[in-house]
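Wait, can you check?
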Amino acid sequence: MTSQDAMPIAEPFELPCGLKISNRIVKAAMEESLGSGDNQPNEYIYRLYDRWAKGSYGLLLTGNVQVDERYPGLMTDLMISSKEKTDIEKWKRYADASQSHGTPTIVQINHAGRQSPMGKRPFRQPPIAPSPIPMSMGDSFIARALQRIVMPEPKEMTVAQIEDVVQRFADTAEIMAKAGFAGVEIHGSHGYLVSSFLSPKSNKRTDDYGSTPKARMKFLFEIIDAIRAVVPRTFAVGVKLNSSDFSAGGLTEDEARDQFRWIDEHGGIDFIEISGGTYESPAMAGTEYIPRSERTRKREAYFLEFAAKVRNTTTIPLIVTGGFRTRKGMNDAVRSNACDFVGIARPTCLQFNLPEILLDKTLADEHARAIQYEIRGTQLFNLIPINAVGSGVTTLWHNWQMHRVAIDNCEPDPSLTVHGKILSTLLKLLKKSTPSILMIFCVIFISIFIKRVFL
């Protein structure tokens, strides 16, 4: 029997909240970097998600929406300043565009915590975190110098600040519910604020928010409860969690399994998306950061082995994101009961209709897959002695593909090279700045001429 004869990924699913999902293929969250000057939704984000809405996905997960504009991951993120200052009509248009063809869309909500290099806060005001432990950008002199400038030591949060952030998560979820989205996903992985509370490496508190492994869960539990208090019962609430931090002193798989069990016991969550790593050790960006057995290497997904283990500790539906490329690999993952959904991120930047290909029973397995492509021009960046620079460039390449669709209204270009894109961008900037440069030289020349005449 071939993979297309029996397709678990084509089967519908219903989340505990009652949300019906037509198939098991999820467009996972990525960094769109399309925030306008006011960091609210705009025509670019509408166009991008309208394309994904037509792609026959079972579920769409948006990129980060920051709950506090003072502490974003990037200044180009979409952000919420407050309920009073939010233009709800723009968010309604975003929800309408992404769900225009019946695919429910869930908004990923986040606070960058100690990984916020800058935001709408006073100059040189440090980021906040559970403990004053800075993020390491590497051991080289360059990395340490850059760290002091870009990622300084964060300020330990007071209980009042913790309560403020909890309320901001609840306010953001309430806005998304009013806008018409199907749910929210709390970003609790990759070293951001919620993740840093969950990790023993970044949470050294001795109070109720960190004195024990379970105490480190208190911040997340308060966010879940605060969101549930203000959204409809049918509104989905999920969380993205690390299977491991993949760094010394960080969250281990055994500790992560306990966290999944405690979340199950606490309740209030409709799904868990499994990921891993932080920007100190970016496992979410590729397999080279993940120690895996030979048996696991034969599987496509990065975190599937952990998902199979954690199945015994929770009944909450699971999404595994990262590494999936073929229909056979996806069907095998769902059929094995290791996960309920397969999350696909980067390939969706190039194939907005990828589910149509995967679900087409007329295609043989070898053709039912994401296109294979190579990102050229990254080798030089891999030599830079700063953590995550190489993986960051590949992330930027996929970001450019989204911008081709959203801003340029063009199709993606798998042949795009990193150095080619950088060169073309520099030429455009030079072309735009040429008149200004000429004007400056003219002003200087005229000033010198007048000075000489009058002297």
Notes: DSSP finds 14 helices and 13 strands in the chain. Residues 287-298 have pLDDT under 50 and may be disordered.
